[in-house]
Amino acid sequence: MSNIKDWRRLCTLLKLAELGAHRRTAKISTEFLARKLGISQQSASRRLIELEHIGWINRTITREGCLVRITDHGLTQLKRLYSNLQFIMEKSYPPSVTFEGVVFTGFGEGAYYVSRDHYRKQFIEKLGFDPYPGTLNLKLVTEYDIKTYSELGAYPAIEIDGFVDEDRTFGPVKCYPATIENKFKGAVISAMRSHYNSSVVELISPVCLRKALDLKDGNKVKVEVLTLP
């Protein structure tokens, strides 16, 4: 479910299920449904029409009220909601965490490390994208954001193996899939050895995030990290 209309539909469907329409044909007047939902009778009528139009319910109009039965398609929506809620409530950590940081220019070493062939092949294989040769650096400035970022260490990560090349050791890297500004796919990367302290976040993405988001030093960026199952 991705917008307010979707949630309104699902809320109405859930209320119909509470009234028994998921197991049998239930006689439900728009006036009664309106009281249950805390909306006007006209709004309740529109919602039933909409649910019928998208195939979530079957509806028959009688003199005494509407006969409503949730369809198999509607039941699928309820089961999906149930599964999502069960996943959220039973998981020992949240399905995603969000923090915000301020863009700054780093040491310029991101392009060198990300483009190392051994790392790059693993990024493509394990993250599902070929990263732009460089990182976007964010400075976390609030206690909340620093704490949220530090908690990532307790969550499952995608492990990128280290290697030795040209008599130099490149350490392992932990990756956490992420969405940047709710627009671009990417990942938070955490190297075992880093020049930065724990208040700095490094991001990789298949696009140049600075250009794609028109970012300058000092701009704020919101990152949603999607924790792994």
Describe this structure in words.
There is one protein chain. This protein has 229 residues and is α+β, with helices and mostly antiparallel strands. It has helices at residues 4-18, 30-37, 41-53, 72-90, 110-114, 117-127, 143-150, 209-212, and strands spanning 26-28, 57-62, 65-70, 96-104, 136-139, 158-160, 163-165, 168-170, 173-180, 184-191, 200-204, 220-226. The chain folds into two domains: 4-89, Arc Repressor Mutant, subunit A (Orthogonal Bundle), CATH 1.10.10; 96-226, Beta Barrel (Elongation Factor Tu (Ef-tu), domain 3), CATH 2.40.30. Helices cover 36% and strands 28% of the residues. A six-stranded antiparallel barrel has the order 4-5-11-10-9-12. The model has no long low-confidence stretch (mean pLDDT 89).
Task: Summarize the topology.
Blueprint: H1 4-18, E1 26-28, H2 30-37, H3 41-53, E2 57-62, E3 65-70, H4 72-90, E4 96-104, H5 110-114, H6 117-127, E5 136-139, H7 143-150, E6 158-160, E7 163-165, E8 168-170, E9 173-180, E10 184-191, E11 200-204, H8 209-212, E12 220-226
Antiparallel strand pairs: 1-3, 2-3, 4-5, 4-12, 5-11, 6-9, 7-8, 9-10, 9-12, 10-11
